[in-house]
What does this fold into?
Amino acid sequence: MCAEIPRNGLADRFWETKPMSELNQKEWEALCDGCGKCCLNKLEDDEGTVALTRVACRLLDNESCLCANYSNRHAYVPECIVLNPDTIAKNLYWLPRTCGYRLIYEGRALYDWHPLISGDPTSVHAAGVSVKGMTVPEFDVDEDDWDDYIIEEPH
Ligand code: SF4
Ligand code: SF4
It folds into this structure.
């Protein structure tokens, strides 16, 4: 879900005036803060409790926290979930607590470090909220060992 995030030409504080269902594609993509947390592999138990690991999707860039091939990602990662106004509700249970989509869906404000507020795409990293520098590639960790890599969500 972490694309290169275009922010030029966006209406001022559009997320406060338009419902999610009326956002255009550019506005929708701009709600993503670029934290990369949704691109970490997760473990889910029988009760639906989700644990985050620092084992990252094969396309996640550990430094930029962006998807290395966002437009073609499904050719490499068919299971990558597409978030849109129709799918967000059923995915809410695993979305990171600081995720811009989650915050807006829940009627909450974006944090000061969100690039739409700060004007700086790196502010999510400076705030310590992203996964920058903390991931290990999924190629390097056997799936049976992912529980050794469980982390608390950076927030
Ligand atoms: S393919 Fe992987 S890195 Fe890219 S958006 Fe999906 S989960 Fe994130
Ligand atoms: S968790 Fe939400 S805000 Fe963070 S990269 Fe994923 S979609 Fe974007």
